[in-house]
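cron nightly-structures :: item 1 of 1
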Amino acid sequence: MEYALVALLLPLAALSGWWIGRRKTRTAGDSGGQGLSSDYFAGLNFLLNEQPDKAIDVFIKMLEVNSDTVETYLALGNLFRRRGESDRAIRIHQNLIARPTLNKEQRTQALFELGKDYMRAGFLGRAENIFQELVDDKNHRVPALKNLLDIYQQERDWNKAMAAARKLESVSSQKMNVEIAQYCCELAELFMKDGDYKGAMKLLKRALGHDKNCARASLLIGHIEKRNGNYKAALRALRQVEQQDASYLSVALEPMVECHQALGKIDEMAEYLNYVLRQYDGLTPVVELSEVTRLQKDEKAAADQIMQSLRAKPTVNGLNQLLKLILINADGEVREKLSMIRDITSRLVEDRPVYRCKNCGFRGKKLHWQCPTCRHWCTVKPILSDEKDK
């Protein structure tokens, strides 16, 4: 980064020398007075001695903003922003905007860069005002809307995010149906926290209208219907997850078991889990099937199912589940020792991430529908059992 800064200062120093030389051209009667100021040589000395920060301050004070230098100023401001020196970037871009010599296009570009400076510095309100102004400029409309969308997502203002996404979709070829569906789900969860399940259901149906493959909406609908005692409706919603995005199926299995148990149809759940195991990988279906088998009063068969899975793919989580089943009938000294082992395996399981972003590799124990690192939607997926122990 320091190399890039020095490389950028070389043309800046040359421009400074050219401009000062032009302004201080000697007349024919001069007797050899210096054409370049002491400030210029001081700046050049800083540059040659690898003190670019001090050189910058000198050259900026000396150099006049005009059509020949504005691109250098913009590049310098952007470099500061990438280095994390937002205060310097802001000063440079504010200085550009204040100059009457800039044409409309140059001023608009400087304004756009200032908006990005404010975002980097965390001044989201100031950045929002700038990008709202730039939405009316045809050359900056799309990037301004994308930055507004980023701001609204950071502020969790989902209504504004939806409005910006719709506008972005209308002025560009970018499809925003997946994002809009997620904004509806975010709002639905807020409604659910407030106890407004009817309002949440309306939003979730809107989400599916925007994106029929929104597994999150189906999971939330299943949760609401199960809470309301509508177990059949909950199961219809939860079974949609397999067709929408099978990678989230493991999240749906536990509430499905609870719904079948409430309906007294646990045998149907066992059939479904056997089907899932034939189609998909992962430990979760095995664990849920063993739980269903235990509920059917066949604890030995439940333990055998986990054991069979462990033989094929040994995992700490699988061992932990097996110990849980064995402890049900264990007693005395054996129970005490097994309990101690399970405490260890439980701590090992707790320390392991459960979800991973397919885009950036972020790992965590909580399901984030928007990755906290790369901010992509629906890229954080449950980790398969064979991935978890690597």
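cron nightly-structures :: done
Residues 2-23 form the longest helix (22 residues).
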